[in-house]
Amino acid sequence: MGFERVCTTGEVPEDEALAVQVGALTLAVAREGDEFFAVQDLCTHAAVALSEGEVSECQIECWLHGSRFDLRTGKPTGLPATEPVAVFPVEVRGDEVFVDVDTTTNGVRPS
């Protein structure tokens, strides 16, 4: 499949994530300044959408129980989650955001 266009840069808010569907996967696309990130839109603790939580300091927070995940590595940075989320490569081309869902940058397989 390779890199797929998922949204424009303007569609991704500064302090929230945007849920996008790519094939069978739902991703949470987030930004920190000029950097864009894509993680699987599923908290590993409670299986709820991470895209409904807040984004700050390069972390995304699960709205249900407060688990936080590093957007670069997918590693949990706050309990109760202990397992990482899948992180996908992102390319920004002009004002469009592309994600490669065939590859994870942290080796975690999407569930």
From TrEMBL:
<dbReference type="GO" id="GO:0016705">
    <property type="term" value="F:oxidoreductase activity, acting on paired donors, with incorporation or reduction of molecular oxygen"/>
</dbReference>
<dbReference type="InterPro" id="IPR036922">
    <property type="entry name" value="Rieske_2Fe-2S_sf"/>
</dbReference>
<feature type="domain" description="Rieske">
    <location>
        <begin position="4"/>
        <end position="99"/>
    </location>
</feature>
<dbReference type="Pfam" id="PF00355">
    <property type="entry name" value="Rieske"/>
</dbReference>
<protein>
    <submittedName>
        <fullName>3-phenylpropionate/trans-cinnamate dioxygenase ferredoxin subunit</fullName>
    </submittedName>
</protein>
<dbReference type="GO" id="GO:0046872">
    <property type="term" value="F:metal ion binding"/>
</dbReference>
<keyword id="KW-0223">Dioxygenase</keyword>
<dbReference type="InterPro" id="IPR017941">
    <property type="entry name" value="Rieske_2Fe-2S"/>
</dbReference>
<dbReference type="GO" id="GO:0004497">
    <property type="term" value="F:monooxygenase activity"/>
</dbReference>
<keyword id="KW-0411">Iron-sulfur</keyword>
<dbReference type="GO" id="GO:0051537">
    <property type="term" value="F:2 iron, 2 sulfur cluster binding"/>
</dbReference>
<keyword id="KW-0001">2Fe-2S</keyword>
<dbReference type="GO" id="GO:0051213">
    <property type="term" value="F:dioxygenase activity"/>
</dbReference>
<keyword id="KW-0408">Iron</keyword>
<keyword id="KW-0560">Oxidoreductase</keyword>
<keyword id="KW-0479">Metal-binding</keyword>
